Amino acid sequence: MPKDLELPFDPIARAGELWRARWGDESQAGPMTTATSIMRVQQLLITQFDAIAGRHGLTFARYEALVLLAFSRGGQLSMGRIGERLMVHPTSATNIVQRLAAQGFVERVQNPKDRRGALAVITDTGRAAMEATTADLEAARFGLGMLGQDDQQALFSLLRGVRVAAGDFVDSADRPGS
Amino acid sequence: MPKDLELPFDPIARAGELWRARWGDESQAGPMTTATSIMRVQQLLITQFDAIAGRHGLTFARYEALVLLAFSRGGQLSMGRIGERLMVHPTSATNIVQRLAAQGFVERVQNPKDRRGALAVITDTGRAAMEATTADLEAARFGLGMLGQDDQQALFSLLRGVRVAAGDFVDSADRPGS
């Protein structure tokens, strides 16, 4: 946030006050301000992460794809799998891989199991860009260095509750009968 | 998330395990998984909010602009003020207002204090679309109905700590000497 745009009050808390005054419903101001806070913190983090990844020719989305490939067997994955694991639309996965291929960070090879499908394979320069970005993100403590370990964990757990309830994944520990 | 993409494990927790195994640094897996969780929950919420706003011809970003105008004196604000309060780039604010104007949800009038500047004024149909979207978002409890009031508040407070440390606004209570 540029300094000249810095507000002398919390705009989300103020929105909560206006919300209470206008609709008179205390029970709704909480979810509204919390949801808005999630949006805002995501915006602060992605701005920071994109700037860090940009030093190495990447965006955070392309960096995430490289991490995924680096962690995969043989450093390769199908487009469908990339979209699934990054939780993005297959079209977005294809765009990300096309951009990485143009940069020489991945190569596309034919999928031996699917003649019409392609596999993305991370290259040595792709691994180097990924490692360099990782080092910088770690140095920045992923934008969350202001939180102690207990607060990190508390935040992760609260967000995990949202993800489980939204059906983001099936938690085997939460499955009936398991 | 379509059901056929639903994963039988938590991909963020798994990334944390791989991270620990590969880099062997426990202290980094926490910030990484927490930051990734914020990104993911934002993605889940905005998908839901855009779908709700879409029923009334809006996106969540345009809805937010209408709420801001509805809360403002005279239902009007300058472009700069809209960008500042929505914490978006002035270009984005202009695009949002142009789209709302094309839909008849706002009118643009000349700013009496700035001959080259414009004010956006919310119209009656804009207010109606805003109110209808608000009712639907409230019915959906802003996507956070799975959290009890204490968890809502805890989540808001943790995120507030991130926002204050990131310089998102100046909290007078945190200012030295106040």
UniProtKB/TrEMBL annotation, chains A, B:
In terms of superkingdom, the source organism counts as Bacteria
MF terms from GO for this chain are: DNA binding; DNA-binding transcription factor activity
User: Is-annotated flag, keyword Transcription regulation?
Assistant: yes
Q: Does the keyword Membrane apply?
A: no
Q: Which GO terms describe its biological process?
A: response to stress
Alphabetical list of SUPFAM superfamilies matching this protein: Winged helix' DNA-binding domain (SSF46785)
Which residue range or ranges hold the HTH marR-type domain? 31-164
Q: Which UniProt keywords apply?
A: DNA-binding, Transcription, Transcription regulation
**Could you tell me which PANTHER family the record lists for this protein?**
TRANSCRIPTIONAL REGULATOR, MARR FAMILY, TRANSCRIPTIONAL REPRESSOR MPRA
Q: What is this protein called?
A: MarR family transcriptional regulator
